[in-house]
Specification:
Blueprint (H helix, E strand, L loop, with lengths): L3 H10 L7 E4 L4 E8 L2 E4 L2 E8 L2 E4 L4 E8 L1 E4 L2 E14 L4 E13 L4 E8 L1 H18 L2
Parallel strand pairs: 1-3, 2-4, 3-5, 4-6, 5-7, 6-8, 7-8, 8-9, 9-10
Length: 141
Amino acid sequence: MFNSKDKKQEKQKGKPRTMERNVIAKNSTFVGDIISDGDFRIDGVLEGTLKTKGRVIIGAEGLIKGTVEATNADVEGEFSGQLSVANTLTIKATANISGDVIIGKLSIEPGATFNATCVMKGALKELNKANETKKHAEKTA
């Protein structure tokens, strides 16, 4: 009645695969480069580069020294290096960030330490689009 072929075909047709969460646990140290599509939670130490299309979460005891490129990020622990977040960077009160930060949106809780140069990418584009719309509206009378 039900074939394994039917199930495989259904999975391939249109349902996206769920992304896994990868974890670097407490008392663990990872040195090197990581490239992934899934989410990452860092509760240990990462020294190197992390590139992901998912979310990066640095736990309260987590530490990253290096480069991170992600879609979203939540920081409770410590980060030092270059951080590039396409959408939203959320910095919790216990966080300590230093280095260079490139983001779309930023949320910082009171008490966080943020010693970094920061560039926001998304806001400038939205402003320019709004001004162009006004100019076009003014020209058509």
